[in-house]
Amino acid sequence: MVAVSVRPTTSTHHHVRSKITPTSTLHRSLGLDSCSKAPRIRLKIFDESISLGFNCKHSTVINEVCLHCDRPMASDYGIRFDYIFDGLRLTLDEISRLKAANSNKLFAQKKLHLVLDLDHTLLQSRAFKKLTPDELYLKKQTDLNASDGSLFVLDDAYLVKLRPFVRTFLKEASSMFEIYVCSMGSRYYVKKVAKFLNPEGNFFDSRFIAREDFKEKSKKNLDLVLGQECGTIIVDDTKSVWSNHLDNLITVQKYNYFNDRHRNCKSYAEMKTDEIESEGELWNVFEVLRRIHGLFFDGLIKDVRCLPFKLFF
């Protein structure tokens, strides 16, 4: 439930408002007019009384101040969307409006929503200290050029190995989907490794949902994805974290490039080999996504959740 408490107006609220500096990221994500001096959400009907602060629904709050009427709000007001803009809070009604509006905009562009996990789905990370003796050679084979490499060093303490076909997968998928990253990793980690996947930053924009955004640390959900679930597909290697959205989920085989103590076999790294791009998991997933996209926009289905994804494999 969204808290609706409102702090009493004080003489300092204009000072608080002056600290708010919405960026182009916020404008793009919420449909703000980036050309206006005072950012306003584009509403089909923008009543004068709302612009003056009367009967304002306080649908969008930044740093505890209503974006529409400048009224100070309680610190627990609304739902947090810090991944879009630090201090951003939205009401449930506004979230629903934005989900519908964004989906309608994407559907008109013949695009759906795609939510991607990181670890063991698109890549694998391993601390230096956890490398096996037969994997230590990798520390001397890392790539410096993020645009075409596949093995990178993170913070002088970790190796990050991209899954074969991942860059082609992202490039092709971005033409059919608006892509989100949804990970149990920290926001710092997610943004760091995303630069290895997409140095230009054009596939994800600011759509990084990390563990700081989840109320339940062992569960993921689509609450913070600004899109309708009927047009949203999830790709993840872990089924259990999506218990509330199994109909949206494509479960993929884990990518284990480094040694896994739970498996009684050598790792790809130890065998100095890897998945074959044209036979790997991401290749197969992309073919499924392409077919689902075609079915949706050919009018054969109106909801991706009606498809048993496992039948495509």
Automatic annotation (TrEMBL):
Its EC number is 3.1.3.16. It is found in: Nucleus. Keywords: Hydrolase, Nucleus. It holds the Pfam family NIF. GO terms for cellular component: nucleus. Coiled coil: none annotated. It catalyses: O-phospho-L-threonyl-[protein] + H2O = L-threonyl-[protein] + phosphate; O-phospho-L-seryl-[protein] + H2O = L-seryl-[protein] + phosphate. Gene3D superfamilies: HAD superfamily/HAD-like (3.40.50.1000). Transmembrane segments: none annotated. Residues 1-22 are annotated as: Disordered. Residues 107-276 form the FCP1 homology domain. One of its GO terms (molecular function) is RNA polymerase II CTD heptapeptide repeat phosphatase activity. It is an enzyme of class 3 (hydrolase). PANTHER family: RNA POLYMERASE II CTD PHOSPHATASE, RNA POLYMERASE II SUBUNIT A C-TERMINAL DOMAIN PHOSPHATASE. This promotes the activity of RNA polymerase II. This is RNA polymerase II C-terminal domain phosphatase-like.
